[in-house]
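Database export, one record per block. Field names are fixed; values are copied verbatim from the stored entry.
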Amino acid sequence: MLFRIAATSAVGAIVLAVLGAVTGPDWSPRPVTEQIVVESSSTLVGGAPVRPGGQFEVRSEIHTVELDGTSVEGRLLMPVDAPGPVPAAVFVHGAGTGRYAEAFVTQADELARAGIATFVPDKRLDTYSTRHRDYVGMAADYQHSVDLMRGIEGVDPERVGIYAESEGCWVAPVMAAEDPRTAFVILASAPVVPPRQQAAFAVDAYLRNTEVPSGVFRAIPRAVGMEFPGGGFEYADFEVRPFHERMTQPVFMAYGTADASMPIVQGPLQLIDDVAVAGNDQVTVRYYEGANHGIKVDGELAEGYLRDLATWVHGLPETATASPRIAGASPFQAFLAEPVPQPRWFGDGDLVLGIVIVGAGLVVVVGPALFVVDRALRRRAGLARGLAWPLVVFGAGCVATVAALVWYLVAIARLALEYERNALVVQGGWIAVRLVGLVTVVALAILAERARTLRAEPHGRATSSPLALAGTWTVLAGGGLLLLTLAYWGAFQLGI
């Protein structure tokens, strides 16, 4: 009997491993073969005198920007007594910012002190949410701020440009392509690739740093590549390249070498190729040693960053093509940010979530309810002898494995985002998830063996009542759905 249970368990584990392999894509990003070469370790911009901040006093004004259907406020910072008219920069928010009082405070102030007028508008939020974003529509909204700046006394209307950060770097190229009058474009920590590609790239990089087991990476295309539950997220596949290809403005790209979330090598190389389609060779790239996604080191903007920006803006058009074009610390990117493989059968997030909910409901609610009713009607258990405990272990194991997997994914996500390592959680947690899953498979094998034995017995209580039988099959059906889900997310991988 023990041999049969072991063999059945092994077959069950192999079947689940195979199902997990064939029901979704694997993850094998290609290594980067073309690393970018910096021309100088110094980030100083050639072609113009260095323009450090602090030269001018700053006047602050709050302006209302009229948009289509609403309005937002923004803060204007004007350098006082600067020889005018002065250049100006309109700031475009990233995903984590939205209010002028909190965003770009240091950047806007220091650039203004260096003689560049700055305007930070509030992000329009009535058309912006986690599920729904329209980068082309956002570009039209921010364009109103550009138009406002062109009419500000003391601002040179022909030298108004854009400063965009992170998510805003999908918006700024739309603005520049649609408005050739835009004088310049600053892209800080630009993803360049579509959002879904960038998200998968970032998850991969964070997980590699956390040193998760290789099997966990299979979840990346299955999570990022599917249509998310509840719909929305259409912007995940927004392609900014067509707008890059229409940009004729000088571009300044800035990255921190410690930014694991962005393709810091692939991005500039792609943008240089993209803008070349319009005959544009005016791309300046700077890398700042140890700086993060916000171009910050230990909470402060990287040394020389704002100085370089001010020098570059004031020196245009000469600085647009001045040497060194690519400078600073040497960046490194291990893998390409590529299109995310789409799940074959579980690409619909509503389906994936629905399977889990239905499966858990059958195991936890419907099945036990049938047993309760059966016991109330018969005053004794209606389940055949020896089947109860493996059925309970199987049902509880299915639910416990799902809960353990969710806990594990949340735990490693937290570690990854905090850029930390914890072998007990990362390695031990993964082993624990798989052990609980294996116990569940063994319980199912014991249940199957016990049912076979009972059918072969000529005497004894070998049959179950109709309600108990229905409850059993309900738990088995629900557990089967949960096992399929667990297999899909890699809980039963055997190197397959």
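Remark 1: DSSP finds 13 helices and eleven strands in the chain.
Remark 2: The chain has two domains: 2-24+344-488, 58-194+232-328.
End of record.
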